[in-house]
C-alpha cells in the first residue's frame, strides 16, 4: 500500500490572538485639528486668484444657505399641506424639493472646486440664511405658497447681484451657476407656485 508523502511546506505559525485582533480593530478614538478652516481657500490651478476665489465662495455660500432653507421649507409644506388641492400641491412641493436638492449639490461642488469650504450643518445654515424661518405648525396652503414665493424672490434678487459680481471678478463658472442654475430654476418654480394663487384658484387663506 502506497504511503502518503508528507508535505515539504510547513504551516506558518499563527499570529498571536491579540495581534490579529489589533490588525482589524477600527481606531475609533482619532482626533486632530481641522485640516482647513471655514473661510480659508486652498489655491488650486484654476486660473483664478485666491482673492477672487474667496469672494466667489462667500457669494456661493450665501446662496447655498438660502437654497438649503428653501429646500427644507418645501419638504415641510409637502408633509403639512391640507385642503382641496392637497394632491397637486403635495406633488409639486416634492418636485420642487428635488430640484432644489440638485441646486444644493451644484453650489456646494462649485465652492469646493474653488478651494473653499461649503456650509453643511443645519445650525450653520440657520445662522447664515436670510430667509425668514416659518413656524413649526401647519399653515394654510395659500400662506405656504406665499412664504415659498417670497423665499424664491429673495434668492432670485441675490442671485442676479451675485452673477454680476462674479462676472466683474472674471469668475465665469460661478456666474454661469448663478444664471443657468439658480436663476432659471427659481424663476420657473415661482411661476408654477403663483399660478395656484390666481383669482379663480380655490386656494385661499
What can be said about this structure in brief?
The chain is mainly alpha-helical and 205 residues long. The protein has helices at 17-24, 50-80, 86-113, 122-128, 141-169, 172-194. The protein has one domain: Ferritin (Up-down Bundle).
Fold and architecture overview:
With 205 residues, the protein is mainly alpha-helical. It has one domain: Ferritin (Up-down Bundle). The chain has helices spanning 17-24, 50-80, 86-113, 122-128, 141-169, 172-194. α2 crosses α4. The protein starts with 16 loop residues before the first helix and ends in an 11-residue tail after the last helix. The mean pLDDT is 91.
Keywords:
mainly alpha; 205 residues; Ferritin; single chain; 6 helices
Q: SS-based structural class?
A: mainly alpha
Rg calculated over all Cα atoms: 27 Å
The portion of residues forming beta strands comes to under 5%
What oligomeric state do these chains adopt? single chain
Annotation, overall tally of beta strands: 0
Number of helices: 6
Instruction: Provide the residue-averaged pLDDT.
Output: 91
- Regions with pLDDT < 50 over 5+ consecutive residues? none
Helix content: 55-70%
CATH hierarchy class name: Mainly Alpha
Report the major sheet: none
Shape: extended
CATH superfamily: Ferritin, core subunit, four-helix bundle
The topology string of helices and strands comes to HHHHHH
Amino acid at each position: 500500500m502506497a504511503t502518503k508523502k508528507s508535505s515539504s511546506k510547513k504551516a506558518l505559525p499563527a499570529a498571536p490572538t491579540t495581534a490579529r485582533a489589533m490588525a482589524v480593530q477600527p481606531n475609533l478614538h482619532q482626533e486632530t485639528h481641522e485640516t482647513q478652516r471655514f473661510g480659508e481657500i486652498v489655491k488650486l490651478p484654476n486660473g483664478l486668484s485666491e482673492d477672487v476665489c474667496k469672494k466667489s465662495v462667500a457669494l456661493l455660500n450665501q446662496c447655498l444657505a438660502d437654497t438649503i432653507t428653501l429646500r427644507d421649507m418645501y419638504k415641510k409644506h409637502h408633509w403639512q399641506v391640507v385642503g382641496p388641492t392637497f394632491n397637486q400641491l403635495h406633488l409639486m412641493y416634492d418636485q420642487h424639493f428635488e430640484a432644489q436638492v440638485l441646486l444644493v449639490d451644484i453650489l456646494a461642488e462649485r465652492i469646493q472646486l474653488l478651494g473653499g469650504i461649503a456650509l453643511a450643518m443645519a445650525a450653520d445654515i440657520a445662522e447664515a440664511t436670510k430667509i425668514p424661518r416659518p413656524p413649526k405648525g401647519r399653515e394654510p396652503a395659500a400662506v405656504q405658497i406665499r412664504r415659498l414665493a417670497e423665499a424664491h424672490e429673495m434668492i432670485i434678487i441675490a442671485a442676479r447681484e451675485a452673477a454680476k459680481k462674479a462676472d466683474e471678478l472674471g469668475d465665469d463658472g460661478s456666474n454661469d451657476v448663478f444664471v443657468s442654475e439658480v436663476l432659471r430654476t427659481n424663476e420657473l418654480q415661482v411661476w408654477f407656485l403663483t399660478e395656484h394663487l390666481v383669482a379663480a384658484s380655490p386656494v385661499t387663506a
